[in-house]
Fold:
Amino acid sequence: MIRTSILALTCCVAACAPAVKRDPHLSSAPLAARLAAADANSGAAVFSRCAACHTVTQGAGDRGGPALYGVVGRPVGHGSDRFNYTAALEAVGGVWTFERLDAWLTDPRHFAPGTNMMFAGLPDGMDRADVIRFLNENGSNLPLPAPPSPSNRPTR
Ligand code: HEC
Structure:
């Protein structure tokens, strides 16, 4: 009985384990640390949750949502010429930084109340970091923020 449970548990752990082993605390780490540990391939898998509404390759058009090729560094709510953005997103101003994408993907309706991106958000901080890295590698390639290092920390 105990042996069967152990066997079942071992199988589940093996089957459910993510490809990359990570410290679970990373999910709530600061964005720079998450981005440094993030993986664009895992981000491509996360992007399958976005792909019903978004494309990410160069020249691919809008779907229910605007095309996302090169979105990191692009103006918020203005990047795709043909897409009919909501006034809520258009009014945000500025460009998509890593931080803003992290906030948007945590809770789109909190970031831009009135947006019509019908997506609840990605609660796991590493899912967000992975997908942001994936987006960055598709047309933006901006330098990632420097991860916090213990030697940079103030002494007091
Ligand atoms: C059900 C459809 C849908 C899903 C799923 C979805 N989005 Fe969106 N997305 C939209 C719509 C619609 C907009 C435009 C919102 C507006 O104008 O207020 C948008 C806008 C965006 C923008 C802003 C683009 C710009 O040009 O300013 C980003 C970035 C974005 N989505 C990323 C994502 C990511 C990453 C995911 C998956 C984790 C995702 N979206 C899932 C529909 C969706």
